[in-house]
Amino acid sequence: MAIYKYYSIINWCEEDQTYNVDFPDLEYVFTDGDTLHEAITMAEDVLGQTLATNEDDNIPFNPPSPTKEINIPEGASLVLITVDTDDFRDDD
């Protein structure tokens, strides 16, 4: 139905040896990956599936925050993730 752009925070977790991804505007939306590329791919997937489901079920979700309002932990990176929710629906 729409194209969305949300910022994610990606940081390396030494203990788990993974890149952790969190969406500060979306509660309970997070993922990880063994490589940075995999973490970004997983972030696109979890964001797209979450927003498509929320649209389909008429569940409201927070709009993206401006970058100046996002607290970025030391050592983390702010990465913009763009998804089209139509890409996360069956064509049936």
From TrEMBL:
Protein name: HicB-like antitoxin of toxin-antitoxin system domain-containing protein
The organism's taxonomic lineage, starting at the top: Bacteria, Bacillati, Bacillota, Bacilli, Bacillales
Limits of the HicB-like antitoxin of toxin-antitoxin system domain: 10-86
Organism of this sequence: Ureibacillus manganicus DSM 26584
Pfam families for the chain: HicB_lk_antitox
InterPro entries hit by this protein: HicB-like, TTHA1013/TTHA0281-like
